[in-house]
Design brief:
Layout lengths: L6 H13 L16 H4 L2 H4 L2 H7 L11 H18 L9 H8 L1
Helix pairs in contact: 5-6
């Protein structure tokens, strides 16, 4: 969630961070959908002048269905649970669906 009404503060903070010597990237994942008009879209959060000033890079992905996301997360969890560093219980379908939405 982005802070409402505090975007100038966010942009100022990002500018300070970009001027620092840090090599750690900051990644924002913004999902645009038919309902994004209610919660905002990328251009509302990062207008063109901010993108230019902060040298932001945008990567766009094609939409992914919830079903495909759940299947992929299930496969990853099963693989990691079997052969990963730590063994863990694979989350149930409802939990994965909640994560995918």
């Amino acid at each position: 969630d982005f802070p409402s009404g505090k975007l100038d503060d966010l942009h100022d903070t990002l500018e300070s961070f970009s001027n620092s010597k840090s090599k750690v990237p900051i990644i924002f994942i913004i999902s645009e959908s038919a309902t994004s008009g209610k919660s905002g879209n990328v251009k509302q959060f990062f207008p063109p002048q901010v993108v230019e000033r902060l040298s932001l890079v945008t990567i766009n992905f094609n939409p992914v269905t919830t079903t495909n996301m759940v299947k992929t997360m299930t496969r990853i969890a099963q693989t990691e649970s079997r052969s990963g560093v730590r063994k863990f219980q694979v989350p149930d379908k409802i939990t994965l669906e909640n994560l995918a939405v």
